[in-house]
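Worked example 3 (structure in, sequence out).
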């Protein structure tokens, strides 16, 4: 954690915050690392980002006149507000996954930002993808470095798709000049090499020919790790403009590598009703391409390549990025962040911004638990996607042995949706437990009813029931079981008030002491499963 004191003249500060969000003109200023530290000269400061510029807590690009040690030796600072992430950890946790696998990726660091001595929020600096990053990863800093920026240029003459991959570049009179105009880049790229890559993707169908050409052109391990991590963390925003392509054009045997960028919309956080600022939860984004990216699409449609990706994802889930890994990372960042996310506006804080993130303050433990819940459920979804099951939606069965190897068993339906989980505390009789979810005539809170048929089994533990709560979305199933379609609740109904009611074969109903985390769409209670048992989630006044 590092303090950063930014000083900007009031006239320039007013100009910065009142002009159009899209302006990239820099205003003057200087920086200190402490209130009484030395002045560090700047080339200037501006807002950064695309859609994030419209959010009330601004992200900044600060350019220094000289390289800075606290920026990993760079002169460029990308301060990301991560306003849409109530944990403020997603960017750091995501980028660290690539580093664990030895793949090139930006480094990150937390900063407390003060503007004119007023605290304006916790920020994450994300290292700029440039020659300095390449050199720190043992790559040629003078190599070709380009980004797929068709998404930002959509609508320009000749650009009618969201990715350069799949575009008929050969139809352009000057393909290299067109690419230079429509793609982002660093240094002096070899646009001829980029043209050849784009042409190959466009002309080559998925299948054996694509596999042969892919292995010839790409660092296969790098690309598969890049793709696998994106699917593990559910980054559905990644295949448009959130990555860079690198090639050491000084080496005739060099292969293309992919470098990730922009990981705030991960672990279930993404657009609902055209807004990224929300508390909706979802993990069922498909293992697909998106953003018109034919490079990824054809990779997935090539059986041999898809098989290698599936094997790699299974290995990473089972051996590397296990639940304890994420729990350790979240605990580390929670300790680092401390109580910062509960700071409220006052005389010395948030004169320009409302608060650190969009959500209700004081719920960091619930938000970090939701990240862990995402991992648990996402992994079940990926396992089912790689090994499809059969049967009806919202039905599942689990065999509980006398001595389970895992303490928690998941009831996951054929589509990969987990309808319940049981953290087993005691097995009096082993057996198979079948679960099913059906609709109820009236809506008591969650308009579904869970039925568990334990047969000869007799098992106790903490039962967690998962419910759907989603609305119009780019990437997740649109289904809501709650009486309100609000992410957590509205003025009349709050998911915090949900209680689990148990009904036995004698039709006796008992309200159970219930733990609720609406950010994970779940409610939990201690139960015993034997015979047939039903559960509902109700609101007390219903």
């Amino acid at each position: 954690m590092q303090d950063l004191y930014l000083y900007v003249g009031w006239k320039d500060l007013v100009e910065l915050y009142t002009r159009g969000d899209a302006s990239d003109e820099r205003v003057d200023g200087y920086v200190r690392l402490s209130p009484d530290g030395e002045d560090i000269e700047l080339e200037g400061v501006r807002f950064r980002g695309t859609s994030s510029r419209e959010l009330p807590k601004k992200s900044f690009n600060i350019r220094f006149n000289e390289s800075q040690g606290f920026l990993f030796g760079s002169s460029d600072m990308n301060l990301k507000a991560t306003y849409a992430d109530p944990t403020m950890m997603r960017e750091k946790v995501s980028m660290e996954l690539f580093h664990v696998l030895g793949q090139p990726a930006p480094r990150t660091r937390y900063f407390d930002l003060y503007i004119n001595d007023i605290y304006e929020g916790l920020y994450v600096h994300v290292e700029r993808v440039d020659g300095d990053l390449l050199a720190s990863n043992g790559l040629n800093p003078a190599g070709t470095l380009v980004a797929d920026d068709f998404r930002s240029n959509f609508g320009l003459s000749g650009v009618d798709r969201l990715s350069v991959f799949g575009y008929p570049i050969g139809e352009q009179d000057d393909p290299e000049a067109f690419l230079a105009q429509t793609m982002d880049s660093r240094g002096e790229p070899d646009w001829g090499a980029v043209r050849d890559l784009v042409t190959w993707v466009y002309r080559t169908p998925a299948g054996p020919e694509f596999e042969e050409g892919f292995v010839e052109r790409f660092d296969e391990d790098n690309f598969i790790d890049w793709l696998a991590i994106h699917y593990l963390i559910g980054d559905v925003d990644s295949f448009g403009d959130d990555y860079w392509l690198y090639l050491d054009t000084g080496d005739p045997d060099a292969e293309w590598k992919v470098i990730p960028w922009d990981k705030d919309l991960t672990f279930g956080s993404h657009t609902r009703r055209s807004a990224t600022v929300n508390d909706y939860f979802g993990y069922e984004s498909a293992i697909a391409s998106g953003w018109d990216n034919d490079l990824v699409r054809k990779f997935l449609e090539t059986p041999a390549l898809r098989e290698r990706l599936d094997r790699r994802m299974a290995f990473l889930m089972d051996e590397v990025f296990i639940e304890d890994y994420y729990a350790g990372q979240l605990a580390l960042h929670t300790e680092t962040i401390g109580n910062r996310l509960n700071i409220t506006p006052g005389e010395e804080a948030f004169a320009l911004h409302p608060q650190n993130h969009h959500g209700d303050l004081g719920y960091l433990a619930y938000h970090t638990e939701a990240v862990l819940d995402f991992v648990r459920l996402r992994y079940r979804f990926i396992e089912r996607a790689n090994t499809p099951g059969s049967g009806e939606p919202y039905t599942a069965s689990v065999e509980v042995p006398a001595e389970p190897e895992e303490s928690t068993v998941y009831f996951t339906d054929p589509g990969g949706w987990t309808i319940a989980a049981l953290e087993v505390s005691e097995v009096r009789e082993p057996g198979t437990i079948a679960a099913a979810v059906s609709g109820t005539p009236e809506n008591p809170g969650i308009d579904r009813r869970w039925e568990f048929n334990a047969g000869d089994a007799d098992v106790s533990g903490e039962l967690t029931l998962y419910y759907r709560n989603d609305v119009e979305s780019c990437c997740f199933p649109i289904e809501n079981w709650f009486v309100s379609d609000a992410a957590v609740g509205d003025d009349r109904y709050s998911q915090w008030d949900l209680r689990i009611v148990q009904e036995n074969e004698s039709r006796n109903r008992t309200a159970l002491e219930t733990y609720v985390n609406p950010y994970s769409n779940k409610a939990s209670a201690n139960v015993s499963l034997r015979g047939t048992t039903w559960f509902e989630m109700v609101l007390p006044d219903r």
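Notes: Residues 166 and 381 are 29 Å apart (CA to CA). The first strand starts at residue 2 and ends at 7.
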